[in-house]
Structure to design on (168 residues):
């Protein structure tokens, strides 16, 4: 191990110069050199004995640099908390509660009304297609759907006032 350390120690100044040339930041360059040496030590058994140690170390360093550069590009530039913009999307907690209310209300409907609402409202079937599917006249589908929507609306409105209470 002492001979490996001696071999690697000779290469550190050149690795630091190359890292600084890539990054233009001493701290990040030192981190890159450290990661390079760590990677070299952990994969020492994979190194070709007849190969050039310096070239192998520089290849490791460059590959680490490129990987981090790609990762940073995907993540975007770091921003201080004080400078971070506010979220562009409104919080969705209330929307999630409303969806849960609607689904709970949908479960309270009779099966025929529930099926009609799902076929026409969710699956986008036409009235004629829903009538054919359920084996009933189109007029019956339209009136049943109207009653289903009205009942669903009343269940959601009465349930919301019961479940959610505004606090000032």
């Amino acid at each position: 191990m002492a001979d490996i350390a001696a071999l690697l120690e000779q290469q550190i100044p050149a690795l630091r110069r190359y890292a600084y040339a890539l990054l233009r930041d001493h701290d990040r360059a030192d981190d890159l050199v450290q990661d390079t040496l760590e990677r070299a030590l952990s994969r020492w058994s994979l190194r070709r004995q007849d190969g050039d140690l310096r070239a192998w170390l520089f290849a490791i360093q460059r590959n680490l640099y490129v990987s981090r550069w790609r990762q940073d590009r995907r993540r975007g530039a770091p921003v201080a908390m004080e400078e971070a913009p506010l979220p562009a999307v409104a919080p969705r907690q209330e929307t999630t509660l409303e969806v849960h209310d609607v689904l709970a209300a949908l479960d309270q409907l009779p099966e025929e009304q529930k099926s009609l609402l799902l076929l026409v409202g969710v699956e986008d079937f036409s009235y004629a297609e829903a009538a054919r599917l359920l084996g009933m006249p189109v007029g019956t589908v339209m009136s049943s759907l109207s009653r289903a929507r009205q009942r669903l609306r009343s269940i959601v409105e009465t349930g919301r006032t019961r479940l959610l209470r505004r606090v000032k």
Q: What stands out?
A: The longest helix spans residues 138-163. The radius of gyration is 33 Å. Residues 160 and 166 are 11 Å apart (CA to CA).
